[in-house]
Amino acid sequence: MTATTRTAPHPPARRLTRPPARGPRRGRRLWGLVTFLSLGVVGYAVVVYFGFDPSRSTVELREDVPWHYAVLMGHIVTAAVALAVGPLQLSRRIRAHRRVHRWIGRTYLFAGVLPSVVFGVPAAILSTQGAGAAAGLLVGDVAWGVTAVVAYRAARQRRYRDHARWMVRNFALTFAAVTFRVWLPLLILAQVPLLESVHGGDFDALFTVAYTATCWLAFLPNLAVVMLIQRRQGVPSR
User: Fold this and answer.
1) What does the alpha-carbon distance between residue 75 and residue 113 come to, in Å, rounded to a whole number?
2) Are 71 and 119 in contact (CB under 8 A)?
3) Does residue 86 contact residue 171 with C-beta atoms inside 8 Å?
4) What whole-number distance in Å separates Cα of residue 42 and Cα of residue 181?
5) Cβ–Cβ contacts within 10 Å for residue 208, how many?
6) In the chain, at which residue ranges do the beta strands (DSSP E only) sit?
7) Burial class (CB in 10 A: 0-12, 13-18, 19+), 181
8) Which is deepest, 13, 66, 155, 182, by most CB within 10 Å?
9) Where do transmembrane segments lie in this chain (predicted)?
10) Which tens digits make up the pLDDT trace of 147-177?
11) How far is CA 89 from the centre of its chain?
12) Phi first, then psi: what are they for 237, rounded to 5°?
């Protein structure tokens, strides 16, 4: 008789499964946060400025310019449209429906961004917080308008990838309405210990410094972060 050897059966092969992708989930969470914050600022603007009462304006008005409040309100109302509609443009589900996406985009640009820039330029020039604040507001408005025009031209020329890139950059500037309200209180609080030593107890001077810095910080970091992310993703800066 010959001895037979039995080999132990091989364990069943395990199927290698990839962990669930985190990118789309993170993207949805980020989109939800951006939408929530954007609508929060829109709601704030409605509460404060509903009724068109100049006495409730949180922006100091020039008494020597009777139409200051009118251009300010035009800027705020149209900016609120852009801020409310803008997050919809970032939704992949909505972008999949081209006709809906196109009409939302037109509303965003022609009822929101572009008229808001037109109103925002004189409103920036009329700022009572000094030349530094006025310059920051003016540069932000011009950049907002330029990115909108570049994005629109790319869409008209069917350069849809360029259009998408510039629209994201444009919304980063739209989102300045949110980040402005984050930076301003932070910069005020950061200077409170310096109120006596630096500003001589003058809170108005402290506020002017914070407001001027906020006029620049509200949009420059937003745009820089978006362009840095796009660069890492291989998106050209043009």
Assistant:
1) 9
2) yes
3) yes
4) 12
5) 17
6) none
7) middle
8) 155
9) 30-52, 67-86, 107-125, 131-152, 173-194, 206-229
10) 999 999 999 999 999 999 999 999 999 999 9
11) 12
12) -80, -10
Tokens of 15: 């199927």
Mean pLDDT of 20-30: 70
Supply the pLDDT for residue 23.
Answer: 57
CA angle 223, 219, 62 (to 5 degrees): 155
Confirm if 116 and 79 have CB atoms less than 8 A apart: yes
Tokens, residue 89: 């443009």
pLDDT in tens, 127-138: 999 999 999 999
pLDDT tens digits, one per residue of 54-102: 999 999 999 999 999 999 999 999 999 999 999 998 888 888 888 999 9
Q: How many Å apart are CA 50 and CA 30, to the nearest integer?
A: 29
End-to-end CA distance of the chain: give it in Å, rounded.
83
Tokens at 65, concatenated: 């310019």
